[in-house]
Amino acid sequence: RRGEMAKLTQLIDNEVFRAYATYSAIVLLKMMLMSLITTYFRITRKAFANPEDTATFGKGESAKKYLKTDPDVERVRRCHLNDLENIVPFVGIGLLYALSGPELSTALLHFRIFAGARIFHTFAYLIPLPQPGRGLSFAVGYSVTFSMAYKVLKTAWLL
Amino acid sequence: RRGEMAKLTQLIDNEVFRAYATYSAIVLLKMMLMSLITTYFRITRKAFANPEDTATFGKGESAKKYLKTDPDVERVRRCHLNDLENIVPFVGIGLLYALSGPELSTALLHFRIFAGARIFHTFAYLIPLPQPGRGLSFAVGYSVTFSMAYKVLKTAWLL
Amino acid sequence: RRGEMAKLTQLIDNEVFRAYATYSAIVLLKMMLMSLITTYFRITRKAFANPEDTATFGKGESAKKYLKTDPDVERVRRCHLNDLENIVPFVGIGLLYALSGPELSTALLHFRIFAGARIFHTFAYLIPLPQPGRGLSFAVGYSVTFSMAYKVLKTAWLL
């Protein structure tokens, strides 16, 4: 088992793969943070989706008024869904990109810009900042993933 | 090609990676099951989102009444979305964790608790069980992914 | 670093892994395309979800009328969510499948059918085609992922 371990850890010892692992973990944790922010707004705005979640606030009819949508909760949920739509392709394509043998500096440039763009996107969505702030940060992250996909397809192409 | 195959299968022969592959496949299949449950409730509750899906039940105006939302359908859809928000980070971070060289026993502990928590979460959401059943199972799964992310960042950190 | 690189590129030189990388990148790019189609419909239908997105069309009360849902926008969003629910399991299980040592011809058969089914699914959803066109393409993609999961669990099983 030790021998196999050694072979496996060769992957995590590779610098490009370490950079990929670091940035992937960071953007996935950022995405997971949206769940906690949703819960925070659901509790402070008293706006829930499930009857069983309102039981703390009263019984029967008096609890039903907390089954509602709230603009702040819906905003966080849209931001969370946007993360799923953009961070998931980054993690999938980024893994293939890291295995396609890019230069460390080029890879770091891609990962740093993507992570920065998505963190800015979250602030732009939640504050909210006036457009085109959010739109541009979406476009920057999108372009980084597209650029990595181009390198993957150029290296791996086998239909 | 055989020679390369041999190298590749070293990964799947590693016990930690085999455990990761097993639990990842199980939780992804569990997530996919939500699609079938949604379809089941859409058909039995006759509640559809697309006009073309109601054609079986009549033509023109008579079919329009089946374009509606149903509480049971919406509940399954929320459960499915919650799976996407939690199982996807587990699969992504879990892969990096499996490659970061954890002890087999520690890795199995993480994977088993996560899979158990998410299967319980589905029952808690669909039955539904009174809170904090669902909330706690969400928190347990969340903590497992967070713990794996900590190990990944500690091992791979390269910004 | 060069030495490690060489080991890494062994993975991307493997034909099954190259096929997986190609088809994964293609279906993830197809999924990302849904964001652009949503934006296109939001602008042409003038139907936005965030007040700050309507600022181009006027100030104050006159901009509020563009905060609405539109059937075409909602249709693209449902198609995008369906992609997340189906393409994400394909990418995750497909990676494990590619590492489980399948024959190249068998792997290519799986990847080609899945990609074809999901591209057809998008057209069936957006045109829209009468059922069961969309339903069948969903079922075909679903079955491919299920078949790959079966191979993964048979090869890797370790609970």
TrEMBL record, chains A, B, C:
Keyword Transport found: no
Main location: endoplasmic reticulum
Localization, UniProt: Endoplasmic reticulum membrane; Mitochondrion outer membrane
Enzyme Commission designation: 2.5.1.18
PANTHER family registered for this protein in UniProt: MICROSOMAL GLUTATHIONE S-TRANSFERASE 1
Function: Conjugation of reduced glutathione to a wide number of exogenous and endogenous hydrophobic electrophiles.
Name of the protein: Microsomal glutathione S-transferase 1
Organism: Mohoua ochrocephala
Gene: Mgst1
